[in-house]
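Customer ticket, subject: "Can you confirm the structure for Dioxygenase?"

Message body: Hello, I'm evaluating your service for our small team and ran a test protein. I'd like someone to confirm that this is what the system normally returns, since I don't have a reference to compare against.
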Amino acid sequence: MSDTIHLPSLFVSHGSPMLAVEPGRTGPLLSDIGATLPRPKAIVIVSPHWETVTARVGNQPKPPVIHDFGGFPQALYQLDYPASGQPALAEHVARLLRDGGVEAGTDGSWGLDHGAWVPMRYLYPQANVPVIQLSLQSHMPPDYHYRVGQLLAPLAREGILLVGSGSFTHNLRELRRNDPATADAPHTLEFLHWFLERMHAGDLQGLFGYRTTAPHAVRSHPSDEHLLTLFFAMGAADDWTQFVHLDSGSTYHSLRMDAFAFGTASNLLAQLPAAA
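Agent reply: Thanks for trying us out. I re-ran your input and got the following:
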């Protein structure tokens, strides 16, 4: 495999755990992304479902799948994603963060939670690319997560795909649980359009302050852990102002399922049907 694989960084929305069995528009989009990009040597993914005080990097040779949810159909609990880990890469990730002044270490206590393995089942269904998970510090602001992405950006030049998994909007109190294909909630579209305007303007500081300036920010994210991974993906790009927005609509009314590719290699995905 070439050592000069050119990869964008990604933000993907994993929405509800039901995405694993209800692909909707998002499953095919993720499959298209995985089929279109050059195959990475490994994947580093940040999920909001592993929250720690300081950055932790999963270092298991075979990370277990974690079914970190309750009250869902039994079929979900039977699903697996038998990807290998890569302990040497985990240590490399932790070292890059420490060298940049971010407290970090490796950790064998977690695995792959549904924020990681659900989208991975669509992106790389054969589980033939090593995956390591990086924890989220949800008490830290967007600029911290952007900085974490910046520190790991050199990995893309080594053929490592950097992924932030979350949900572009995530208000569970407004879910319409019996209708996964329901129409977009108008306030989530206003929130999306504000973000796109700021992105196209290259207004990084405005995006960092989204919580006080974006329309319906708190309604869209009562807590913002599912959006912080977007800032990680932006920071991980060689130039975040070059991006492709991939629109897969909403699920359950209040979960926008948008994806983004960032960086000069984002044009690899510009011809996908979902590219907006």
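A couple of notes from the result: The longest strand covers residues 42-51. DSSP finds ten helices and ten strands in the chain. Feel free to reply with more questions.
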